[in-house]
Structures are given as C-alpha cells and as structure tokens.
C-alpha cells in the first residue's frame, strides 16, 4: 500500500480507538446510572435512595397480586427470585401485566420498605408464539416462558 | 485485481456496472416486501400475549436493522473515501445518510406505537431507546455537516470523520440490552441462536428484512448514479451520454 495511504489509515484507526476508549470509560463510569431500574436485591442491599423518584424492576410474584374491590388500588410483590419488594399502586395496569410477567415500576421507596408506584410498565420477553402453541405448552405442563428451553432440550 | 477495483471505483465504471445490478435488486425488493408484508400482516398467527399488535415487529425490526446497517455502510464508505480517495464512495455515503435517518425514525416511531399497548408507555430513557435516538442525531449531524461547507470536499471529509467516530454507537446499540437492564427486550433474531418464535412467525420477518436490504441497495445504487451524473456533469463521458439520448 502507498505509504501515505497507510499513514492515513493508521490515523483513522488511532482516532477510532481513542474515541472508543473515551466512550467506553464514560459508560463504565456511568454504568449504574445507565441501568433503567433497581432490582429487588439492590434495594434490599440499600443501594436505592429512599424518598426519591426511582425505578424498580423484576417479575411479578405468582399469587401476590391483590386488588381492592372498591377502587383501583393494587398491591403486588416484585421479585428477582432472591429478594422481594412490595409494590403499592393505584391506577390502570398495562395489558401485559400479569403474574409471572416482568414489570418496571416508577415511584418512591418509602421508609417502611415498600414501594409507592405512580407508574407501572410491563416488560415483555423476546419470545413470541401463537395462542395455540402457548396453550399446547401449558397442557403438557410447561409454561410459555419455557419455550426456548424446551426446544433446545428437544435437540 | 487492483485494476478491477479501480474500474469499479471510477464514476463511469460504477455507473455502467450498477446499471446492470439495479433492476435485479428492485425486482427482489418488490417481491420480498410484498410477500413478507402480506404474509406477516394477514396470515402469520397473532401472539399469545400481545395479540395483533405484535405484527409491528414486521416493520420495526427490519427498520432498526437497516438503520444500523446504513450507518456501518456510511463508515465503511468514509474510510474508503479518506484513505483511497475514491469519490464514488463519498457519493454513496451522501445518499445513504438520509435513508439511514429515515429508517432510524421509522424504528423509533414504530417502537413508540408498539410501546403504548405492551409496555404502557411510548417512551422511556432506557439504554436501547436512548442510543437509537443518538443514532438519529448522528445521521442529522452528518447530513448537516456535509451541507455546512461551501467547498464540497471539505464537507465530505468532515462528514466522513463524523461517520467513522459515530460508528462506536453501533455496538452500544446492539449490546445495550445485555450490558444494562432495560425495558426493551433482548434481540429476537441472532445469527448464532435459533429464533425465539416459531417458523410461521419468523419466516415473514426474514422476508421483510431481506426485502428492506434489497430496497436499500437498489435505492442506493439509483441515487448514487444520479449523484455521479450531477457531480461529473462537465466530464466528457456524461456529455456524450446525454447527447446520445
């Protein structure tokens, strides 16, 4: 290759790696701030601030959803299978909200340790399937979340 | 070997060569997009949780893929232009940038529309969504920077440098859903693993992705040819071409 072109290519590569290092270090320094939400474990460890607007996320624990008959109040437990977090919310829940489903809740952590949510967002996984397949999986004793696992196991 | 590359890289060589390629890509794009969208929107089964709103995937995923591919294309063209001084690469980059910006917007917009029924919000500042928004601003920056110089060559060089530096955002977009916890779910499609949906759902998606790529290539070839004619309008071969018709 022409020496001048070679030099130019090296300048470009050098520029690119310097920029990559700079951005990499920035993101590394910001790593906890880039995370969208705190998990119940982090909250139990005291990483999350009390009385400030934060987000928490995890799975809605099976059998933990209690709705009030009189109004829209709902209490449920968010878990990451290590620690639990009790969430209180009053309002309309998204369509995908159900037990065993991932959620992100926005609100404040109270002194007593429960979470006062003012917004609930449903997180969904990357698995899609037709209704019939989901029902067939449930009939044979699997939950739809096991789809990927089951297919891999069948290999 | 070098002679072939040089011939292909010369404006006239590229103009003649792309004339032969172009109709094939247009035909493939129309065929794939038509089959893919009809199959995806009418015949593919609805999702067990999301119902019909899941069909947005047939636009959202291809648009997001193309947005990132267009940016990688920009960066590759920028290196070729800066190091080997091949003008066609810069012409191709100048027509790829608006397309990439449009695709990024489509991905963001379809994602917002999809987010309302599934997540319960149309926007959230999570790593995937934010890095995608940065990609949109990078495209805008590249387009604006190119036009900001009175001398065309300076504009091309500045836009090329921004494209090369901006390419760092691409792995960030790709891995954002793995490095940080986000509301956005992990990738549906990956080269190494089996797809996370049954064949009657991912087949139309695959057709749509291929169709978007063919459309991108066909459009880039066509617009690069126009750009060649515009920039080389005082060259003899262009004059002869115009006079001959």
From TrEMBL, chain A:
* Membrane topology recorded in Swiss-Prot or TrEMBL: Single-pass type II membrane protein
Molecular function (GO) terms for this protein are: heme binding; metal ion binding
**Major localisation:** membrane
* Highest taxon of the lineage: Bacteria
State the UniProt keywords alphabetically.
Cell inner membrane, Cell membrane, Cytochrome c-type biogenesis, Heme, Iron, Membrane, Metal-binding, Signal-anchor, Transmembrane, Transmembrane helix
Tell me which residues bind heme.
124, 128
- Localization annotation: Cell inner membrane; Cell membrane
Q: What Gene Ontology biological process does one annotation of this record name? A: protein-heme linkage
Stretches of the chain found on the membrane's Extracellular side: 30-155
- What GO CC annotations are associated with the protein? plasma membrane
Q: Which Pfam families match?
A: CcmE
- Cytoplasmic compartment ranges equal 1-8
Kindly list the residue ranges recorded as spanning the membrane: 9-30
Biological role: Heme chaperone required for the biogenesis of c-type cytochromes. Transiently binds heme delivered by CcmC and transfers the heme to apo-cytochromes in a process facilitated by CcmF and CcmH.
Q: What family does the Swiss-Prot or TrEMBL record give for this protein? A: Belongs to the CcmE/CycJ family.
Quote the HAMAP family the UniProt record gives. CcmE (MF_01959)
Instruction: Kindly give the PANTHER family that the UniProt entry links to this protein.
Output: CYTOCHROME C-TYPE BIOGENESIS PROTEIN CCME HOMOLOG, MITOCHONDRIAL (PTHR34128:SF2)
Query: What name goes with this protein?
Result: Cytochrome c-type biogenesis protein CcmE
| Organism, as annotated | Aidingimonas halophila
Gene label: ccmE
From TrEMBL, chain B:
Tell whether Ribonucleoprotein is among the UniProt keywords.
no
Sorted alphabetically, the keyword list is: Cell inner membrane, Cell membrane, Cytochrome c-type biogenesis, Membrane, Transmembrane, Transmembrane helix, Transport
Task: Please tell me whether the keyword Membrane is annotated for this protein.
Answer: yes
Q: Which residues form the Cytochrome c assembly protein domain?
A: 20-184
Primary location class = membrane
Q: Which GO terms describe its cellular component?
A: plasma membrane
So what family is this one in? Belongs to the CcmC/CycZ/HelC family.
Q: What's the protein name?
A: Heme exporter protein C
The organism of origin for this protein: Aidingimonas halophila
């Amino acid at each position: 290759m022409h020496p001048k072109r070679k030099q130019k290519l090296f300048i470009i590569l050098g520029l690119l790696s310097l920029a990559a290092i700079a951005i990499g270090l920035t993101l590394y320094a910001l790593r906890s701030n880039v995370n969208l939400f705190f998990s119940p474990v982090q909250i139990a460890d005291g990483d999350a601030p009390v009385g400030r607007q934060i987000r928490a996320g995890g799975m809605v624990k099976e059998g933990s959803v209690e709705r009030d008959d009189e109004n829209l109040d709902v209490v449920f437990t968010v878990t990451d299978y290590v620690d639990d977090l009790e969430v209180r919310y009053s309002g309309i829940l998204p369509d995908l909200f159900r037990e065993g489903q991932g959620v992100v809740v926005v609100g404040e952590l109270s002194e007593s340790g429960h979470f006062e949510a003012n917004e609930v967002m449903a997180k969904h996984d990357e698995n899609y399937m037709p209704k019939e397949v989901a029902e067939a999986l449930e009939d044979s004793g699997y939950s739809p979340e096991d789809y990927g696992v089951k297919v891999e196991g069948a290999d | 070997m070098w002679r072939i590359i040089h011939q292909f890289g010369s404006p006239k060589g590229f103009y003649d060569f792309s004339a032969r390629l172009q109709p094939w890509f247009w035909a493939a794009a129309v065929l794939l997009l038509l089959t893919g969208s009809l199959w995806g929107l009418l015949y593919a089964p609805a999702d067990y949780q999301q119902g019909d709103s899941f069909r947005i995937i047939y636009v959202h995923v291809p648009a997001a893929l193309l947005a990132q591919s267009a940016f990688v294309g920009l960066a590759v063209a920028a290196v070729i232009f800066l190091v080997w001084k091949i003008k066609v690469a810069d012409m191709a980059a100048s027509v790829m940038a608006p397309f990439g910006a449009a695709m990024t917007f489509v991905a963001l917009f379809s994602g917002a529309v999809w987010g309302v029924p599934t997540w319960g919000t149309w926007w959230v500042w999570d790593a995937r969504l934010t890095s995608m928004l940065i990609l949109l601003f990078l495209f805008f920056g590249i387009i604006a920077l190119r036009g900001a110089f009175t001398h065309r060559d300076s504009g091309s060089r500045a836009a090329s440098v921004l494209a090369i530096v901006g390419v760092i955002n691409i792995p960030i977009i790709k891995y954002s859903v793995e490095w940080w916890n986000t509301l956005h779910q992990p990738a549906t499609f990956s080269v190494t693993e089996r797809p996370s949906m049954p064949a009657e759902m991912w087949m139309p998606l695959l057709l749509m992705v291929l169709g978007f790529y063919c459309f991108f290539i066909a459009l880039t070839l066509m617009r690069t040819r126009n750009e060649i004619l515009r920039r080389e309008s005082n060259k003899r071969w262009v004059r002869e071409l115009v006079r001959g018709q």
